[in-house]
Write a structure and sequence with these properties.
The chain is built from 11 helices and no strands. With 299 residues, it is mostly helical.
């Protein structure tokens, strides 16, 4: 796995864990106590810095984001003459609080998101690597040579994992122990399962070609099942998108117009712009959700 030097949206590089993070470690300890599994998330993406130091960076990064966001909100509130000063202060305070908590939570969760993204990339490339391994094993190529070949191939993070196994074996470590270590350290469920199946087949003396055929079949079946489940879910998502994009704004506008006739709720251009803006945000959120849920089988 390539070395990660920067976490997205975090305003500081990870190297600042040794300076800022270490200096304000007491702050990081308090933040880290709310999310102890951060230690394992950082370890899964090969970040060796102390989680308390990273938590301190996350705290100050979220603080800067919230100050900037609150300042922007304050500028808009200063032009609003219909709000009293205490109400403006309350709105600014909650804007600061919610933006700070949101960004802090995002910073703490991002290592887990990166690890999950790496696992999904491994799952995507694994089927091609296993097909390559099946062809080579069927041709009589020794297992270690096959692992070396896959490590030097272009299978993304799968090649990185196999290269690590090959390098450890060259340094004198037993091959089976390194395959087991790969199963333990990876976040990919399918690479874990594949590694344990290979170890079991080798130790029991089973036919490795038949084992690889079963592995490839299971991976193909899994991808087909992902495609079918996404297709079924997409029908419901399209319905929700139509509701957010067309039905709810239309019905909401109609109801507001009816209320305005009876003087219950005056309609202004700001109200219409607010409805359009909320609908726009809802559409972006749904599109983003579709993008994250869409199975990616090819690079």
């Amino acid at each position: 796995m390539p070395e990660i030097t920067k976490i997205p949206l975090l305003l500081f590089p990870l190297s600042a864990c040794q300076t800022i993070g270490a200096r304000f470690r007491s702050v990081g300890v308090r933040v880290f106590s709310f999310y102890p599994s951060l230690r394992y998330d950082l370890r899964n993406i090969n970040v060796e810095y102390a989680p308390e130091n990273y938590s301190a960076l996350a705290f100050f990064s979220a603080l800067i984001y919230s100050i900037v966001f609150t300042a922007i909100i304050g500028v808009f509130l200063s032009f609003s003459h219909g709000l009293t000063l205490p109400l403006k202060v309350v709105i600014a305070f909650f804007a600061f609080l919610f933006s700070f908590l949101f960004m802090l939570t995002l910073h703490l969760l991002y290592p887990k998101l990166i690890a999950a993204n790496i696992a999904s990339q491994i799952d995507r490339e694994l089927i091609f690597a296993m097909r390559d391994m099946l062809i080579q094993i069927s041709s009589g190529v020794p297992l270690f040579t096959v692992i070396e070949n896959i490590g030097s191939s272009d299978y993304g993070f799968v090649s990185e994992e196999f290269k690590k196994v090959a390098n450890k074996v060259k340094a004198g470590s037993p091959l089976l122990d390194e395959i087991e270590a790969m199963a333990i350290r990876t976040n990919s469920t399918h690479l874990k399962r594949t590694s344990w199946q290979l170890v079991t087949a080798i130790r029991s003396g089973a036919n490795l070609t038949n084992t690889l055929k079963g592995i490839v079949k299971n991976l193909v079946d899994y991808q087909f099942s992902l495609s079918k489940s996404f297709t079924a879910e997409l029908n419901f998502i399209i319905l929700v998108f139509l509701l957010v994009a067309a039905v709810l704004p239309t019905i909401g506008t109609t109801v507001l117009v009816i209320f305005s006739v009876f003087g219950k709720f005056p309609i202004s251009s700001e109200v219409f712009l607010g409805i359009i803006f909320l609908s726009f945000l809802g559409q972006i959120a749904i599109i983003g959700y579709i993008r994250t849920k869409r199975p990616t089988f090819f690079a």
